[in-house]
Amino acid sequence: MPGTDRLIDLVDERIGRFLETRESIVLSIAPEIGPLASFSRQFLSGGKRFRALFCYWGYESVEGARDRRESERLDAVIGTASALELFHAAALVHDDIIDRSDLRRGAPSAHRRFESLHREHGWDGRAEDFGDGAAILLGDLLLGYSDDLLAEALADGVDAARAVGVRREFGRMRAEVIAGQYLDILEERSWRAGAEDDHLSRAERVIVYKSAKYSVQAPLLLGGLLAGGTLGQLDALREFGLPLGIAFQLRDDLLGVFGDATVTGKPSGDDLREGKRTVLIALARRSLPSSARRVLDELLGDPELDDDQIRMLQNTITSSGATAEVERMIALNVERASHALDDAPLADVAVNRLRELTRSVSDRVA
């Protein structure tokens, strides 16, 4: 049974081999397509690989007690885990376009890289338009690749009924993420039209469908389904995965406002400039006096916010009690996730690793 570092290496190797097979196809069309291939590799290098790890340990939580050789177990689950990472990369490329993010993991985001390419060569038209269009295509390409890699993984001796279940769950995950992303951008632009009392519940809904399910719950279920999990085992993975996914995204929301740019790879307060209507913001607005709430509403979403304005908004949010409340919500969801593993019909070794991952995703600085 490989350790975490070895699992990540196996996923990286699988992604690398897959991209090699696809690069020959796109490069045979025209040499000018080279940036699509090189940027694909760059966006799939690094990262914490949380989704791949949850997929593997979801698999092992069901399969761990069975007497099968590791070599027979690894290929399909590593392929499925790698497909998840390709899907994640596609989502990040599209998300950065929507949010107008300049950086991803401390380097220029995809659309900014394509903009730079346009400027370097002095091509016609606006560099921004080229950057957006090319990055959309890159995201689409990676999205298609994720399906291709999943199909390869499931063709590797996987029982037909299990393969159907995995495909169905992967498709459900994809639909939920897209729906959640739509709800996210809708909330940023339509929040004034909704009832004041609904802001928090709408922000919580975005967390569930844009992030929590696809970051933790779906990878666990994909692994469990691949291993032929029983209803009881799959229910245990669901009950563990959803609250942990919520805690994961709540931590992400705090980092988006208060994170250290040298660690997160994105400017501190980036979510404030992007106008994210998160649970953190909903809680702050609920507690602030009307004058402070108006200032928050006026500044939130201004891409030109300077460092002093960011610090002022950070202090306003903290003084409202919202930061402490989100920390309490994280702890509560972590507790719920942990309790879901108590006496769960899952392999002990995998349960121990899932508990370790619980700490990693909920108490992180990037």
Automatic annotation (TrEMBL):
<dbReference type="GO" id="GO:0004659">
    <property type="term" value="F:prenyltransferase activity"/>
</dbReference>
<keyword id="KW-0460">Magnesium</keyword>
<dbReference type="Pfam" id="PF00348">
    <property type="entry name" value="polyprenyl_synt"/>
</dbReference>
<dbReference type="GO" id="GO:0008299">
    <property type="term" value="P:isoprenoid biosynthetic process"/>
</dbReference>
<comment type="similarity">
    <text>Belongs to the FPP/GGPP synthase family.</text>
</comment>
<keyword id="KW-0479">Metal-binding</keyword>
<dbReference type="GO" id="GO:0046872">
    <property type="term" value="F:metal ion binding"/>
</dbReference>
<dbReference type="InterPro" id="IPR000092">
    <property type="entry name" value="Polyprenyl_synt"/>
</dbReference>
<dbReference type="InterPro" id="IPR033749">
    <property type="entry name" value="Polyprenyl_synt_CS"/>
</dbReference>
<keyword id="KW-0808">Transferase</keyword>
<dbReference type="InterPro" id="IPR008949">
    <property type="entry name" value="Isoprenoid_synthase_dom_sf"/>
</dbReference>
<protein>
    <submittedName>
        <fullName>Polyprenyl synthetase family protein</fullName>
    </submittedName>
</protein>
